[in-house]
Every structure is written in C-alpha cells, then in structure tokens.
Amino acid sequence: MARDFSKNTANYLSLGTGTLGALLNALGAVSVHVWLYADTLSTGANDNRSVTVKVSGSSAGVTMFVGGATAKFGIGGRSVVTDGFQSKSATTTFTTGAWHACGGVCDFAGDVVTPYYQGVAEGGGAVTFANPAFTYGAATNHDMIGAADNAPGSTAQQFDGRIAEVAIWTVDIGANGFASLAKGYSPPFVRPDKLIFYADLLGRGSPERDLRSGATGTITGSVPVYAHVPIIYPATGRSRRYATAAAAGTSLNEEYEAVPRARLTEPLVSVW
C-alpha cells in the first residue's frame, strides 16, 4: 500500500529536523527516486513537492517537485545555504491519474542537475553550485515527504495523491539504475551499497520506517493508505519471520521487511 497525501496543512509526513540533511552531508552527488500518482496539481514553479531535504534553517537542499502551468517533474537544490536554488525540469508533461517513476541527480561536484522521468533523463544540464559537496548546516524545519515544510508551507507545495518507494543514494546511480527503477525493481536492487534511505510507504504502521538508516516518518493528521504501485521486491528466505513480526505490529530495522513478493519476469539490468 502507498500513502495518499492531500493539500491540507493539517496532514503531512515528517522525517524530523536534520534527519536526511545529516545523511547527505559531504556528498559530491545525490540520487533520489520516488513513484508518484497525482490527483490534482498546483501550477506554481516549484509546487507539488514529493521529497524535501533541508540544507540549513528552512532552506531546501534537495527537493523534487512537479511545477509550472505545463506540469513538468523537476529536481533541484543547494550545496550550501548561501546557494541560489539550482533546478532542472523534465520535458514531458506529468499527467494526473497514473503512476510515474520520478527521480534525479544533484551532482554538486560536477555542477549538473539531471531529472529522470519514467526512467529516462530529460532536461538536465549545467548549474552553478557554490560548494563541491552537500554542506549541511543547522536545519530548523523538518525534512518532508509530500510537502515542502512542516511550518506548514502553502497547500500548493503539498503533493495531492499517492507517493511510494522513496529512496536516496550517495552517488549518481546512472541511466541503468533509473531505468531499472522505472521497470518496477525496488531500490535495493540498485546500488544497494550506496542506498542510504528507503521508505517503501507500504502503510504497515505509523510511523513509517526507513529500512536503511532507521529514520522514522511521523504522520500528523491523516495520510491514508492506498493501493501501491506494482513493485518487484528481492526474494528473501526470512520473509516468514518478517511476516510474523509485521502481523504483530513490530517494525524490524533490517534490510528488507515482509511485503508481497512479485515474481521476477526478466533478468535484472546491471546497475553496478
């Protein structure tokens, strides 16, 4: 099951202050990926946020959005709080009423931002970051899924619809990595050695759990459970133990938890 977000400032999912910013500190590049299903879209330039990581204070360090009157998916950020916001948007129009694989790379060392829409790089290019690595300061506002802020920000910046399979890597996972994710392979298939955050948002309980770093996503108000995007998960011999724990309401901070396992129908694309 995915989580169903709304444009209501009383309802949101927070990861707390500095949770993701500290994980990203000193990284030369960051990859982010998420599955999105929008019900409605606001038309501001950086509206409809799916992931927001604060670099310092209330300033966004890495964020993904669907913006503008023509509804394009985009990713952007800052290497340090003194940066201007650097972003790029895909060229294909984002449509409501369907699942979309959305991701991107902020390459601070290389001064490049690259959005990936449905597994394909679109609209990326050169930007100017002040620092060659993400430089975390002291965040005052929370890292968020489905919103820009916990202050809260405007409803336009909140995402209206389903969000699932949120993942962050410490490197550029490359074209093959994003193509595999768009085919439905879960994030642990792609550069697992560099995967630092993975919240599948299956709705097993509240708070939602990050299966990599142990972070928790605290839900304020109502963020209901909804049908999940079809995903291929790694097989595991420990699934029965996980299923027993999940049924008992126990959250295990291990690499994979109990979820319905899809049959692998094609070879895994190499992403190493």
Structure description:
- The chain is mainly β and 272 residues long.
- It has a single domain, classed as Jelly Rolls, CATH 2.60.120.200.
- It is built from three helices and 17 strands.
- The strands form two sheets. Strands 1, 3, 8, 9, 10, 11, 13, 14 and 17 form a nine-stranded antiparallel sheet that branches. An eight-stranded antiparallel sheet has the order 7-6-5-4-12-2-16-15.
- A hairpin with a 6-residue loop joins strand 15 and strand 16.
- The longest helix is centred in the middle third of the chain and has 9 residues.
- The radius of gyration is 17 Å and the shape is globular.
- Class from helix and strand fractions: mainly beta
Helix content bin: under 10%
- Can you identify the CATH class? Mainly Beta
Radius of gyration: 17 Å
**Overall pLDDT score:** 88
Biggest sheet record: 9 strands, antiparallel
**What's the CATH architecture?**
Sandwich
Q: Outline, from the CA principal axes? A: globular
| Contiguous runs where pLDDT drops below 50 for at least 5 residues | 237-272
Overall structural domain count: 1
Query: What proportion strand?
Result: 35-45%
* Helix/strand order, N-terminal first: EEHEEEEEEEEEEEHEEEEH
Number of strands: 17
Distance between the termini: 29 Å
Tally the helices: what do you get?
3
CATH topology assignment: Jelly Rolls
Oligomer state of the chains in this structure = single chain
